């Protein structure tokens, strides 16, 4: 224990509070934040997770994230170690324990400890971990100048994998590495039929020449909580369609948008080095961001 407490870990300053269900309490010392090595979540990626934020003391889209986590759990034949209502309560308790006005929550559910094979039967009880950590908002300058995007060499995940937010994120990791190597912001994955799927951790949409918000079908992509909330907030202001999108559609678009939990909505101004429209974030990107920011104030769950 003395060695454990003395051992530094990278990023420990970002950890605010965490919870493990086996122990049933919240801790704020990041050097005690451990994951059992025999949890299939650790050595097989057999688990699911959700990430959400709180801003100005209000947790955003908690229920939408919990609902999606339930769908992901069903896809993995995974049951939580406690009722779903308790999972929700624990998430709020951990966020409160962080004692900050802004932060991020990561809720992870694994097959649980029990062995080093692949058989789920090794694990008698599933695992639940909740971590609160510091929120690093996207720099404001990126909203002003926009993002650069490219076609990733990493293909979109198979549909059954993409549609649940599972802990096997190797393709996403490789996409992010590729973006760093190419000096661009947003890698975009395409499926075997050459249709746009999603970014490394974000959904993508576009505004076409008819002024419609076009969202790629979620065939090989995760149904994003942010993009679906944006649809709900924007549905009375402009036409919205879900359809397959090819690479050429991005070049013809009036706007290309990135939507996700951390950044809300950001305009993409170049794809593969080529300009999108007038190479500036457009009015729809700004409008969606404004709507989402106001929605946090109106609908976020107060921590206190």
UniProtKB/TrEMBL annotation:
<protein>
    <recommendedName>
        <fullName>aminodeoxychorismate lyase</fullName>
        <ecNumber>4.1.3.38</ecNumber>
    </recommendedName>
</protein>
<dbReference type="Pfam" id="PF01063">
    <property type="entry name" value="Aminotran_4"/>
</dbReference>
<keyword id="KW-0663">Pyridoxal phosphate</keyword>
<dbReference type="InterPro" id="IPR043131">
    <property type="entry name" value="BCAT-like_N"/>
</dbReference>
<dbReference type="GO" id="GO:0008696">
    <property type="term" value="F:4-amino-4-deoxychorismate lyase activity"/>
</dbReference>
<dbReference type="GO" id="GO:0046656">
    <property type="term" value="P:folic acid biosynthetic process"/>
</dbReference>
<dbReference type="GO" id="GO:0008652">
    <property type="term" value="P:amino acid biosynthetic process"/>
</dbReference>
<keyword id="KW-0808">Transferase</keyword>
<keyword id="KW-0456">Lyase</keyword>
<comment type="similarity">
    <text>Belongs to the class-IV pyridoxal-phosphate-dependent aminotransferase family.</text>
</comment>
<keyword id="KW-0032">Aminotransferase</keyword>
<dbReference type="GO" id="GO:0030170">
    <property type="term" value="F:pyridoxal phosphate binding"/>
</dbReference>
<dbReference type="InterPro" id="IPR001544">
    <property type="entry name" value="Aminotrans_IV"/>
</dbReference>
<dbReference type="InterPro" id="IPR036038">
    <property type="entry name" value="Aminotransferase-like"/>
</dbReference>
<keyword id="KW-0289">Folate biosynthesis</keyword>
<comment type="pathway">
    <text>Cofactor biosynthesis; tetrahydrofolate biosynthesis; 4-aminobenzoate from chorismate: step 2/2.</text>
</comment>
<comment type="subunit">
    <text>Homodimer.</text>
</comment>
<dbReference type="InterPro" id="IPR017824">
    <property type="entry name" value="Aminodeoxychorismate_lyase_IV"/>
</dbReference>
<dbReference type="GO" id="GO:0008483">
    <property type="term" value="F:transaminase activity"/>
</dbReference>
<dbReference type="InterPro" id="IPR043132">
    <property type="entry name" value="BCAT-like_C"/>
</dbReference>
<dbReference type="InterPro" id="IPR050571">
    <property type="entry name" value="Class-IV_PLP-Dep_Aminotrnsfr"/>
</dbReference>
């Amino acid at each position: 224990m003395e060695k454990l407490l003395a051992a530094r870990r990278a990023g420990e300053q970002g950890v605010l509070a965490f919870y493990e269900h086996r122990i049933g309490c919240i801790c704020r010392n990041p050097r005690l934040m451990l994951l059992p090595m025999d949890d299939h979540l650790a050595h097989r990626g057999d688990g699911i997770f959700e990430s959400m934020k709180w801003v100005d003391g209000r947790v955003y889209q908690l229920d939408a994230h919990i609902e999606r986590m339930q769908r992901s759990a069903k896809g993995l034949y995974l049951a939580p170690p406690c009722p779903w209502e308790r999972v929700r309560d624990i998430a709020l308790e951990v966020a409160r324990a962080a004692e900050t006005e802004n932060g991020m929550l990561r809720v992870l559910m694994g097959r649980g400890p029990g062995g080093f094979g692949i058989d789920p039967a090794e694990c008698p009880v599933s695992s639940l971990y909740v971590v609160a950590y510091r929120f690093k908002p996207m720099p404001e300058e990126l909203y002003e100048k926009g993002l650069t995007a490219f076609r990733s060499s990493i293909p979109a995940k198979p549909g059954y994998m993409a549609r649940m937010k599972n802990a096997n994120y190797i393709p996403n990791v490789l996409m992010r590495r590729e973006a760093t190597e190419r000096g661009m912001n947003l890698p975009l994955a395409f499926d075997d039929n050459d249709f746009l799927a999603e970014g490394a951790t974000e959904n993508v949409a576009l505004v076409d020449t008819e002024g419609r918000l076009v969202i790629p079908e979620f065939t090989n992509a995760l149904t994003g909580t942010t993009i679906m909330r944006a649809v709900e907030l924007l549905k009375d202001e402009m036409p919205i369609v879900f359809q397959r999108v090819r690479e050429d559609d991005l070049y013809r678009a009036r706007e290309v948008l990135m939507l996700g939990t951390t950044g809300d909505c950001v305009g993409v101004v170049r794809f593969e080095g080529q300009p999108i429209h007038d190479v500036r974030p457009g009015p729809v990107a700004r409008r969606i961001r404004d709507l989402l920011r106001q929605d946090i104030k109106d609908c976020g769950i107060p921590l206190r």
